[in-house]
Amino acid sequence: MTTTxxxxxxxxxxxxxxxxxxxxxxxEVLRAGRATRVPQAPAGVLGLVHLRGRIVPVIDAAAHLGxxxxxxxxxxxxxxxxxxxxxxxxxxxxxxxxxxxADGIEQTATGGEGAGPLTGVFAAPEQLVHLLxxxxxxxxxxxx
Length: 144
Fold this sequence. Notes:
It contains two helices and eleven strands; from the N terminus they run E-E-E-E-E-H-E-E-E-E-E-E-H. By secondary structure, it is mostly beta strands. It has a single domain (6-143), classed as CATH 2.40.50.180. The protein starts with 5 loop residues before the first strand and ends with a helix. Helix content is 10%, strand content 50%.
């Protein structure tokens, strides 16, 4: 009997698209507050927020993912931890925590140094879920 690896992911919506990140990297989900702007910050970084003694960069997920959408009325911050640092993605709506079988993920082409944050796609019964590697997203911001 073979067992299929399962990825536990948090799904969220940005525009009309559904995305997922590994659940073990999610710190919390908050209602978006006002971020303090940072002069000469990379494109896609909206500013910084102070969260429980940490300074957390706020990243516009739509701009970074190439999703076209109007500014959300009630944005949400998805706070992630990556190598002991916290980052907040501005998303439109938090959805569910789902278990995605590894053999159900269609891998995307990975291009090494310039690889984008999308790692795969899963065809859920109700929607297409785009899997993200948050580390790649942050690395792309720091390379710009």
